[in-house]
Amino acid sequence: MDRRRFITTLLATCLLPSTRALAANPLTPFTLQEDDDSASFVIELEGSHEHKVFTLDNPPRVVIDLPQVSRIAPSTAPRQHAGIVKDVRTGRHGDGIRIVLDLKRLKQPKTHVRELDAHRAQLIVSINDPDPLMAAVTAEAESHHQPRKAIIEIDAGHGGKDPGCISADDHYEKYVALGVADALKARLHADPRFEPSLTRDSDIFIPLHQRVLMARDHHADLFISIHADAAPTPSASGASVYILSEHGASSAMARWLAESQNAADRYDSTRDSNIYSDDPDVQSVLIDLSMRGTDVASQKLAKTTLGHLGEVTHLHQHRVNKAAFAVLKSPDIPSMLVETGFMSNRADCKRLLIKSHQQSLAEALHQSVADFFEANPLPA
Ligand SMILES: [Zn+2]
């Protein structure tokens, strides 16, 4: 391509004598490099890098305001520009300087500041047609534009003064829950599709309603509460997945609201037997679920999860359980509670305490989350 290139180096001559003290902003030389279609204007700024660059039409021009520059060193070169820039004009503007590049046709400038050292920087104003290759790359990227990351709120059950279920040999559910939650968080964090967040990452007590508020504050797309079970019969074992039953939810919700009229967090005291289910199998989980899982999404999520958990542990029940959990509604967030096994079962408990088993559970949950979003992509 026969593209003429003209370089005008603008040498220092004081065109604009100033009455202001000049110590902070001495003479500022600039260069202009241009051809038929593009131009690059570079000015060195000392002290303040404050600038404003914009375009005006009629005639088409790029305006560069430098409010902290008091004097400028413009060109001694003849004003016969052969490229896109027809003329360069400088003048006072307020206490600073205005530089105007008159263009043959209007183009949008791009501005870039390059720090030279602690005090000096180059202001570079590029006037270009978009690079055709870059434009193509950008268009390609936009057409395949990646959906945003799905935000997964991972809730490690219990914590702090609330140990959760306690095994016969004095192991606490709260530690198992945190171990699995941590492992899941690490896995999701390493997966570019997801942005995990934990309701707790240490052994602290967090009231239930606060866990739901956290999920909401984080704009979570999914809520997973991780627990381990206990049952009066030591033989009960295996993992279970719960979602909330509509009927139970509404009555539990009503009860919860009725019981929490005072500001104090009711979970801050001893567990309240009122929010326990009559079903002994699920009794131990009812206290800690704050979610609503009646919608189809929760059902799908829970079903997928059961399948994946079944690959790494045996299942207590092969169907998704619905229970009347004490709940604070999160109607817009698909939610489930995973009981990873039984603290009250010797073999289960032993496995639940092993890091590699916690990792396997986290892997199954990660896969479940991935499958869920594969089948139910986030809205664009
Ligand atoms: Zn629990």
UniProtKB/TrEMBL annotation:
Domain MurNAc-LAA: 212-370
Pfam families xrefs: Amidase_3, AMIN
Signal peptide: 1-23
Keywords: Hydrolase, Signal
Top-level division of the source organism's lineage: Bacteria
Reactions accelerated catalytically: Hydrolyzes the link between N-acetylmuramoyl residues and L-amino acid residues in certain cell-wall glycopeptides
EC number: 3.5.1.28
Enzyme class: hydrolase
UniProt-listed PANTHER family: N-ACETYLMURAMOYL-L-ALANINE AMIDASE, N-ACETYLMURAMOYL-L-ALANINE AMIDASE AMIC
Protein name, UniProt field: N-acetylmuramoyl-L-alanine amidase
UniProt source species: Salinicola endophyticus
Origin organism lineage: Bacteria, Pseudomonadati, Pseudomonadota, Gammaproteobacteria, Oceanospirillales
